Every structure is written in structure tokens, then in C-alpha cells.
């Protein structure tokens, strides 16, 4: 997917792109779906499936397009903001009612569930990034650049116990290249081209052997035993709503 290049993608309206791979397009579409799902449908299983597909591909990420990298971290930034807001809501609710009222307890319980779901999505994003850098970091200059731009946001979860292990390689990489850039430029202003040049040269001598080893990510879709009980009515519902064909609704039991 990442070796097949497209000169343009006319149907993608958010940004005009050239020299983009099929893999980049898949990443962009998956992230678009997750953004929409987070804002509207709020189906946690859709997030899980999209992130699982990205995770399965992550060890093969090669020469990621800058825009695909930016969108990946745009989704990460959205998760960070939601995590922060949810933690604040839990703390505020606990302080307001001292956690005694039944309504407060129910709200805290729901917010705690939401927090766990956000943390699970964050963990999967970290796994995707970790898998990519441990396998193909030397072929992903733009990803390293975008990671450095979001260094402070990646540092926020460094001390959370559930993320410590998965973040070690990410922080090791960021620390090394942050030091390289400081040595090269100091406090002087730098252009994107100059930063990319330093990263590209640094990746040529970077030793992936210093990374902690993790098992390859391999998520499998497990189909429900009676999946047709959901999918058949769902497909017919879509047909009735979107096909512009007339069906007598009284004859359907969806």
C-alpha cells in the first residue's frame, strides 16, 4: 500500500495532495472516520476497529506523507483534550457534592467509564507510533518531525503507570533528536527544511537496536456467532433510507 503512489487524489477535498500513497489515504480516511465518530455517533467499537487496522499496518508504515502524520497527531491531540476535560469533570463533580449524592455517584461512574475508553484509545495510538518507529523509523522523516512538534503533549502521559512501558521508545527517540536539534541550532530560528535535513541525517546513523522490543501488533476481527441478526436488518435499513427506491414500510420488521 505504501509503495503505490498516486499523483493526486481529486475526491479528497480537505487538502490538495501530490505524491501520496494508498497507505497514506487509508490512514487519512480511518482518522476522518474516527473524528466523525467521536463527534457524532460515539461508537466505541468503530474506534477500536479503526485503530486495530492502523496497528496491523503500523510496522509497514513507509515514507508517511506529512499531512497523514499531522492528521494522526491531530486525532491524538483531540484524545488528549478529552482526557484532560474528563479528568477535570470527575474532580469537579467530586468536590461539588463531596461524592455523596446518588446523582453525583452516577455521573462519576459514567465519567470513569468514558475516561477508561479514552485511555484505551490513547494506548492504541501509542502502540501504533511505537510499532512504526521500532520497525521503520529510518524511513519516516516526517513522522519524527511531527512527533518533535508534539513533544510536550507526548510528555504529558510519561508518568501514568499504564503508559510508561509503551512510551519508553517514543521518549528515547524524541530526547535524542531534541538534543541533536539543540546542538545544531541552539536558540536560533530554524526552517522546516533545515529541521528535516537534521532528522534525515540523524536517522541514517540512528540505531534501532536501542529500542525495547515489543511483540508485533496483530489484531484479529472475531465475528459474532449470530452477526446476521444485526447486519441483515442494518443493511435493509440503509437500503430503505438511502436507495431512493420505494418500499412498503409496513412489510418490514427492522
The main β sheet shows up as: 2 strands, antiparallel
Poorly predicted runs are none
Number of helical regions: 9
**N-to-C terminal Cα separation, in Å?**
38 Å
Strand elements, count: 2
- Backbone shape: globular
Helix and strand content put the structural class at mainly alpha
Give the topology string: H per helix, E per strand. Answer: EEHHHHHHHHH
The main sheet orders its strands as 1-2
Strand content: under 5%
How much is the radius of gyration in Å?
22 Å
Q: Helicity, in percent? A: 55-70%
Mean pLDDT: 87
Structure description:
- This protein is mainly α.
- 67% of the residues lie in helices and 3% in strands.
- It has a two-stranded antiparallel ribbon with strand order 1-2.
- The radius of gyration is 22 Å and the shape is globular.
Topology (SSEs and partners):
Layout: E1 5-8, E2 18-21, H1 22-41, H2 44-57, H3 66-97, H4 102-136, H5 141-149, H6 151-155, H7 161-185, H8 192-205, H9 228-242
Antiparallel strand pairs: 1-2
Helix pairs in contact: 1-2, 1-3, 2-4, 3-4, 3-5, 4-7, 5-8, 7-8
Key terms for this structure?
254 residues; two-stranded antiparallel sheet; 67% helix; mainly alpha; globular; 2 strands
Question: What's the gist of this structure?
Answer:
This protein has 254 residues and is mainly α. It has helices spanning 22-41, 44-57, 66-97, 102-136, 141-149, 151-155, 161-185, 192-205, 228-242, and strands at 5-8, 18-21. The longest helix has 35 residues, at 102-136.
